[in-house]
Amino acid sequence: MMASIPAYNDYANQVLKPRIDPSPMAEIERIEASGEFTQPRYMELLMQHHYVHHVLRMPADMWPDPVNRAFAKLNYPVYLLMQGPSELGAAGKLISWDRTDDLHRISVPTLVIGATHDTMDPKHMEMIAGRIPKGRFHLCPNGSHMAMYDDQQTYFEGLIGFINDVERESV
What contacts 149, CB < 8 A, 6 or more positions away? Predict the structure, then answer.
């Protein structure tokens, strides 16, 4: 997650939304304006024009079982309270949440993973790693928000390398 919801919203507005074709984006915005987020058409549009490009870059009918189970068990009332109803920006209780100025207080070795096609701005993720004293950034160039599935080799090489480096340093 990005360290700043305002920065996340800027990224969604400036990068993610413009990547969606204008006609489906207009329909998504109409549904959001009407507040009818639970209607099936909303998720259909998001899946076709956003999720399969930025959440998990593979056809939705091929998503791994753990991903499908997680989405099926999502605590929507809490998600709605915290994130807000839109998948293309946050508007809930976290609307002004920003921990950027606190990143320097994280004292443990920290791996920040970003992905080129992620819903989170990879440049922001790199900034996070740079502000954490023992931070390291790892980019998955072919990945999305779930790079552990769609850019697996890169993801796990970075993760395992980080763990090995931390273990070597603590010996």
Answer: 56, 58, 64, 67
